[in-house]
Structure formats: structure tokens, C-alpha cells
Amino acid sequence: MPTMGGLLVLLVSLLHLINPSLAYSLKNCSIDYSDNPSADVFVSCSSHELVTVPDDIPRAAVSVLIRNNHLEKINRGDFGGMSKLRVLDFEDNHIAHVDDGSFIDLVSLRVLSIEENKLTNLTANTFQGLSNLTILLLGNNQIEFIHPSAFRFLSSLQTLQLESNRLQQVADIQAVLQLPNLKNLRMGFNLFSSFQTKDLPLNMSSGLKVLDVSSRKLQAFSITTPIFPQLEVIHFFCFSHVPILKWDIPDKTLLRSITQLYFSLPSMSFVRIQKVLQSLDSLMHLRLNCVNRWFRKGLLATICKIPTLRKLDLSYNHLHNSTVKLVACSQLCELDLTHTDLHELPKGSIISMKRLTSLSVGTNWLTKVPDDIRRLNSLEILDLRGNLISDLSCEDFLNTTRLTDLCLIENRIAKLQGCVFEHLNDLKVLDLSHNLLWTFGGAFKTGLQKLEFLDLSKNFLTSLHNEDFQGLQSLKRLNVTSDYIDRVKHNAFDGLNNLETLLLSLPLDYESNFTRLQHLENLTIYFKIRESFQSPHPGWYNKALFQLKSMKVFKVCSGNHYGFPFDVLADMFKTMIHLEDFTAINVYVSALKPEIFQFNSQLKSLKFSMTDLSDLDPRMFDPITNLQALDLSECKLKSLDFLAKANLPALKFLKLSDNEIMTINEAVFQSLPALTYLDLNNNPFTCHCSNAGFIQWVKSNNQTQVVNAHQYRCSFPVAEQGNMLLDFDTQTCWMDINFLCFISSTCLVLLTLLMSFIYHFLRWQLVYSVHYFLAFLYDSRKRKIGAAHCYDAFVSYNVHNEDWVYKEMLPVLEGEQGWRLCLHHRDFQPGKPIIENITDAIYGSRKTICVISRRYLQSEWCSREIQMASFRLFDEQKDVLILLFLEDIPARHLSPYYRMRKLVKRRTYLSWPQAGQHPGLFWQKVRRALQTGDAPAETTDLLTGPAQL
């Protein structure tokens, strides 16, 4: 019977064959690769030191393995919405509690394992929702209490493992035995002192077929009620040499269905075991392990009297040659004597077994094939592995003509005779691996007409000769790998016309010709370079060109650490037009030619490992656009830029582990639209902004799973060593240098355009604003100081109007009217900045008189004076500005001085040309303007005086 662990592995494997899949990257788990993107999701979170169930497990997963972690509790909601889950495994954790309803959403779950944890009790709702569960593994916990209703939801349960817990009495499992579909119950190594059906309700009936009641303390095994009408298998494994176990089954009718009984170290007396065996009228398979004392008392005689017995397993016993007395067991069909310390099988021991079809005498001390085997013409399977057999004679298999499977692994056979297998015409499997063979002696030239599998690996073969295998016309699989082969003759494989799989070792300068292996689909070659080998003669390999037109899988490996030039084998690919899978491990040191795979358009899987591909030419991938899996692990790759240039539209699986990749440009993966699985383990990543894009891509993409990405660590810089790659803060890296250059250049262009526009159209307004601001500052300062006025008026004029000022204005205003005027040619302080002189003059005078002409408007300093004076006018709201126009100037010419233009349109001003013949009236108006106070009345114009003259 298979173990529970093996059963679980088998079930998971079967699920993998149905529909494995992957979808995205996970923090603490990985998703098994599948070449079918729509297939089921298989998740593994094992051995990650987890303390809680990961929250990013895909809800569509069908299998989740969380083995060997540190979980202490299963919470309700950990598996919410996972309605497709079929296998859930928590083996080897520290789980002590399971929330009620934790599995309520797992309506499709078939297998649940919580083995090797710390559960102490099972509540009424622990397994709520698991109506389709068929296998439940709870072994190696500390369960001591099971609620009577704990299993009421498990209506489909067929196998339950409760071994190695702390259950004390049969009543504890009453609810288990009431399960309608339960077939297999393993409850060994609990604290039961007895297993008696009288402790259960009389009317109870169970459909159980397999019962394991192994125990260290079991004293009584009693079936006195018809509770197990279908029971077929009983296991006892007791770990006690004290005969304390009492077997009590008074009614033989209760045992009619028992066909298999397994005893290991049973604590039962010899008399009792005899009675047990005598009471089992239907027993077909008996296993007795570690029961040496029973054999010394002659138990084999009792065993051989069981008329229905067909299979006897005596493995793991210490059988003296004298105790092996199986002459009377003529009814046996299968006999297992593995690990029984036999040095020989005495003559006549098994010769009477005319029905024997399977015999295993492996892992003993036999030095030759037992003589009795020669007469077992019914034998089909013979296992002699792990003995000390050194010679095979022609009589060893003389009469075993029905043999189909012969295993001679791990013996000391050094040579074969031509007649040794000549009578084995029905043999299909022959395994001679791990021996000392150095010659075949023509053993494969006759007989073995139906042989399909031949394993000759790990021997001391140094050469393969012409037509060594010419008689094996039915052979489909051959393994002749060896560390010692240094010569293969030209016709060594002649006759293998139906060979489909070949594994062999070859020297680099081999002579063999494979042209006749037209059905070969799978070839694995292990090359070995002799120390004396320098380089092949040009064209030497042309004589041995492979004409393998049916080849689909090709693997080449080199046992030497330095490998050899791969171009030596390049010509082989020309005829392999159906090649789908190629692997090369440690086979070359020079760069591959771009045209290497030009004839292999059907290639789907490609692997190079333990070699130097740092100069890989991406053109190599051009002919193989159907490639789905690429493995370049341990290839000294420093960059992935070649992928951006490679044409790989169908690539789904990419493994780049154990390389020298430090930085990755995420744009590389844009050229791989079908990529779903990426392995970059064990690369020296740099935690730098150069990897920011890749880090963000790993976190955000929803198609490609980057396996174990959350465990990638930084190798550079030194300050980041040991930190997690995905923990690197990428926020500071988003200001791209190119983008900054673009922004800077754009701003510079815009600034240049703006300055040009301002200079051409708004330069005067800008100048005015500057002076306006300076005047504001000066005014604020003067207000704080409270400075007194030094002049009655500051006269602002252009140098070209200086004659008019001195001849017309000064004689009247200073000479006749007595006003004190400030003139820049006369009153400005030498050495002081001009702008300060202007500001001091304007704010040091009660009024400002602007003598305006066309030249005045064109003067830079005059414009500053009038702008500052107008600022004072509007800032202080005082009547401080007098405009005297010496010329008639249209308002449109005042546009650069928009404030003055506004004043001219809204207020009166004095015009010298309009004074005409009345200059006296003009100067009288000026006098009146100078006499007015600083604070204007509500109805007084800021430009004091009559209407324009």
C-alpha cells in the first residue's frame, strides 16, 4: 500500500498533468510554469518561513502548498473565494488552531493535509464547507478531542489519516466510522490501549476497507460485532518486543473479507500469531516486517498452509539461510525477500513455487544468482539489485523464459557472456546500471528479441564496438553513459532500428555514425575530453554527421569544466528539422554563430547552462520564432539587451538565474509579449535608480510572474547590500534626466521668446513698473522719516528744451513769482546715482513740473522722472503733478506712458502753444497750480488749472 505522503504527492502530480498554470508574481510564493496560459494555477509557498497565510494567493488556484513554514493559526478568510482549490497542504508548520469556517469557501477541495502540526482538538465547524473532500491528513499532531459533529460536513471523505495523535479510546473516532464513504482509516500510534468494537454501538456499520491500528501500547484488538463487513486490510506496527497484544475475533465470518495483513514489530506471542493466521481463510497478501523471533520458531510453516495466500513480503527481517523454508508455499505468486541479510538462497527453498511471477531478493549478500531461479519458468519479474553478484552464467536464466523485467542494479558484474540472455525472448526491461561492466561479450547479439529498455549506465565501459547491439531490434530506450568511455566505433549502434531514446557518453573525437537511427527522437550525449586531446582535425566530425531526421529532443553535456567549442556539433542541426527541445550544458567557450539554428524552425525549448554567453548574438533567435522556453542560467550574462533585439514573440518561459545581471531595462520585456514566467534568482542586482523601471514593472505587471522576486537582494551599492530589491524606494528616481533636459530647454526657449516679446512690445511698461516699485520703496522710507520739502517744484525737462526753461520759465517762476525750483543740471548732488537724485528731487519738492515735448518722450531719464512722479500722484492721492506741453502731441503718442495718457484724457493740462498771445495768463495758471495745497478737494482735478490753453 502506498504511504499517505506518497499518495498526496501522486494526487498533486496528477493535478499537474491536468492543467498547471501561472499568472502573476507573488510575495512569498511561486506559481508553477505551464505552456498553457489559460491552464490551472498551482501555487507553492513552501519553505519561506511564513507566519501567516499569504494574502496574494490567486483566488483561482487549484493547488496550494504551504509546507515547512511557521504558521500557528488558520484564520477565517485566509482562503475566501477560492472555489476552485482542489489541494491544500499545510504539512510541517506550527498550527495549533483553525478558525471555524476557515474552509467554508473551498467547495471543490479534494485533498487537505495538516500533518505535522500542533492541533489539539477538532471543533464542530472546523471542516465546514468541505463536502467534496476525499482525503484528509491529520497525522503527527496533538489531537486529543474530536467533537462528535466534527466530520458531519465530510460526506465524500474516503481516506482519513489520524496517526500519531493523542486519542485514547475507540469512542473518540465514533463519528469517523459513521462517515458514509470512508474506505481508508489510519489511526496508528495514538494512546489506545485497546481497539474493541464492543465499545461502539451494536447497530453501527462501516464501509471501511483499510484499517491501521498500529500502536506502542495496544493490548487488545477485538472485533466481536459485524461493524466492518467490507474490511480488507489491517495494519499492525507496534514497536514492542513484549507479547502483550491479544487478538480476539471469535467469529471467522467477521474476517472473510480480510485479504491483506501487515505486521511490523507486533507485540504478540507466537501462539497468538499462529491462531490469527489460521483464522484468516481469505488472506491473499501478508507482510511480516521485523519479526525474526517468529521465524526462528517456525512460523513459515504456518504461513505456507494458508491456501489463499498469493503475496508474501518478508522484507526487513534477519533470515538465516536455515530459516528460509518456503518449500511448502507453492501457492505464492509474489515473494519479497528484500533486506533480509541473505548470503544465499538455499537450494530447494523456492523451487516448488511453480506459480511465482515476481521475486525480489534485493539488498542482500548474494554472490551469484540463486540456483532455484533457473527452474522458475513462471517468473516474470526478478529483482536482484544491491547484491554482490560478480558473474552471470549461461545457466542462470536458462529456464526463466517468461521474464519481462530483470533488475541487476548495483552488483559487481564485470563482464557478460554471449549466452547469458539468449533464452530471455520475452524480456522487455533489463537494468545493469552501477556495475563493473567493461565488455558485453556479445550478450546483446542473440536473444532479447522483445527488449525495449536497457540501462548500462555507471559501468566501466571504455569503448563501444561495432554491432554491440545488433540483436536488439525492438529496443526503444538505451542508456550507456559512463565516465570511462573514450572510443565509440563507427557501427556501434547498428541494428537499433526502432530506438527512440538514447543516452550515451562520447569522446569529443568520436567515430560513431548515427545515420541508421532513423526513429530516434530523444538523444542525450555526455561528452568527455581526454587529457591528451588538443583539437579535432578539420572535418573529422563530417564522417560522423548526425542524420537524425526524427530528432525532437537533443541534450548535450560535457563533464569537463572547460567544455569544448560548440561549433563542432553545429552541422548536426542541419538535418534535425523536427527538433523541438535542445539543451547544452558546459559545451562551448566560443560565441555561437547567428545561423546555428537556421534549419530548426520548430524549436520550442532551448537551454544553455554553465557556459559563457556574454557575447550572445540576438540574430541567433531569428529562425526559431516558435520558441516557448529559454533557459540561460549560469551563462555569465551581464545584460539583457539582446532580448530587445531578439525575435521571440511566442516565448513564455525565461530562466536567467545565476548570472551577472546588475541592472535591467524593463523595456526589454516589451519585446516578449507572451512572457508569463521569469526566473532571475541569484543575480547581483543593483539597488539604484537604473533599476527603478524594472522594480515598478515587477510590482505592476499582471501577466509575467517574476519567480521569488520579493526575495531578490541587493548586491550593490555597499550601503544597500542585503536589502530587498523590491523595497528600494523608486519615488526619488522618477525625474528622468532626459525629461529634465527637455523641460529646461523648453523653458529657455519660452523665456527667450517672452523676453523678445516684452522688449519689443512692453519694454516701456516694464521699465515703468520697475521705477514704480522703486518709488514705492522710496515713498515708504520717506514716510517713516517724515522728511520736509526742500523745493516748491522739481522741473523735469529734456536737455533740448533747456533754453526754454532757462529763458522762459526760470525768469518768471523764480524771478517774478519767487518759487524755489529744483533743476537737475543745477541742483543734483554730484557723485550720487542718478536714480536716487531723481527720487530725492521728486519727493523733496511739493510739486513736479513736467515740461513735455517729443524729445522729452524719447528720453530715457525723462520717462523715468514722469513715471516716478505719476506714481507719487496716484500713491499719495495728492495734487503734486503739473503737466506743461511745449508742443501739440496726439494722445496716441503717449501710449508707452499709459498712466500719463490716462491722465491727459481725464484731466486738464497747460499747453504753451495754445497760450499764444497770452503768456501772462499761462504763467498765472502755473502760479495758481503751485499755490494749491497738497490735499486735493473732491471736485478739484489732480492737474490743477483751467481747460487747455
UniProtKB/TrEMBL annotation:
GO BP, sorted A to Z: inflammatory response; innate immune response; toll-like receptor signaling pathway
Signal peptide region: 1-23
Domain annotation TIR: ranges: 789-930
One matching Pfam family: TIR
Keyword Transmembrane helix set for record: yes
Transmembrane segments: 737-762
Chief site of localization: membrane
Keywords of the record: Glycoprotein, Immunity, Inflammatory response, Innate immunity, Leucine-rich repeat, Membrane, Receptor, Repeat, Signal, Transmembrane, Transmembrane helix
Keyword Iron part of the UniProt annotation: no
A GO MF term: signaling receptor activity
GO CC, alphabetical: plasma membrane
Membrane topology reported for the UniProt record: Single-pass type I membrane protein
Subcellular location: Membrane
Similarity remark: Belongs to the Toll-like receptor family.
UniProt-recorded name of the protein: Toll-like receptor 13
